Every structure is written in C-alpha cells, then in structure tokens.
Amino acid sequence: MSDCLFCKIIAGQIPGAIVYQDDRVVAFKDINAQAPTHVLVVPRRHIATLNDLTPEDDGLVGEMTRRAAAIAKEHGHADRGYRTVFNCNADAGQTVFHIHMHVLGGRRLAWPPG
Ligand code: AMP
Ligand code: ZN
C-alpha cells in the first residue's frame, strides 16, 4: 500500500534498521525502543490489522512467530524471557496499520500492560 510506512521500509524507500528479511517476512528495529531489544516482525505483504487475517495467512503468522523467537534467541533472551505483542486498533494503541509483532526483551516486563 503506497502510503504505508512499513511498506516503504520493506521496499527500501525509507531507511530501516533491518535485522532479518526473506521473501515473506522482514524484521527491523523499532525507532522508539521500549526495551534493550525491540524489534518489529512484519509480513512483506500489506495486511492492515489482525482483523484482516484469513486462514490462508496461518502459515505466514507462524513464520512471523518463529522468526520472533529466533530473533529473541539471537539477542540472548530465550532463557530469561521476552514478550511478543500485536496491537490491534485504537484501544490497543495500534499506530501503524500494517501488522507487526513487537519483540521486546532485555529487561523485566510488567504485567498487566498499561
Ligand atoms: P503500534 O503502536 O503497535 O502500531 O507500533 C508501531 C511501532 O512502530 C511503534 O513502536 C513505533 O515506535 C514504531 N515505528 C514508527 N515509525 C517507525 C520507523 N520509521 N521505523 C521503525 N519503527 C517505527
Ligand atoms: Zn503496509
């Protein structure tokens, strides 16, 4: 989608600190990190919110989840722990409408979230 920030990062039209990419999934550092590790895992294909997923996307979401776990492990968080988050729409504070899995690690994370 032409006016989507994350589509532009994926396309290389605006800079992103990319830590992983393949033909379906891209991961890059969050520009406003909320933890020592804060990476966003996104599908290359534009999907606005979790509400827009279809059964055909099940494999894609699985790839995103396993990539998030791999990134957390690479950053040394597998044993101590980390958090993955999808925000969906206004009450969750979604600000970029291209689905993304936050991967947060490297500090103690409170629960429940604010
Ligand atoms: P959400 O609130 O779940 O939609 O998360 C959007 C995230 O995108 C926020 O954590 C932002 O800090 C992050 N973000 C916004 N612009 C950029 C950018 N240019 N590069 C990387 N991350 C960004
Ligand atoms: Zn997009």
Task: Please describe the structure with a list of short key phrases separated by commas or semicolons.
114 residues, binds zinc ion, 3 helices, single chain, alpha+beta
Give helix and strand order, one letter per element, not per position.
HEEEHEHE
User: What is the percent of helical residues?
Assistant: 10-25%
Cα gyration radius (Å) = 14 Å
What small molecules does the structure contain? adenosine monophosphate, zinc ion
Q: How many β strands by DSSP?
A: 5
Question: What's the arrangement of strands in the largest beta sheet?
Answer: 1-2-3-5-4
Shape type: globular
Q: Which residues form runs of ≥5 with pLDDT under 50? A: none
Q: What's the N-to-C terminus distance?
A: 31 Å
For the sheet with most strands, the description reads: 5 strands, antiparallel
Report what the structure shows.
With about 110 residues, the chain is α+β, with helices and mostly antiparallel strands. It has helices spanning about 5-10, 60-75, 90; strands spanning about 20, 25-30, 35-45, 80-85, 100-105. The chain has a five-stranded antiparallel beta sheet, covered by helices on one side. The longest helix is centred in the middle third of the chain and has 17 residues, at about 60-75. The structure holds adenosine monophosphate and zinc ion (ZN). Adenosine monophosphate binds next to loops.
Compile the SSE list and pairings.
Blueprint: H1 5-10, E1 18-21, E2 25-29, E3 37-43, H2 58-74, E4 82-85, H3 89-92, E5 101-105
Antiparallel strand pairs: 1-2, 2-3, 3-5, 4-5
Bound molecules: adenosine monophosphate and zinc ion.
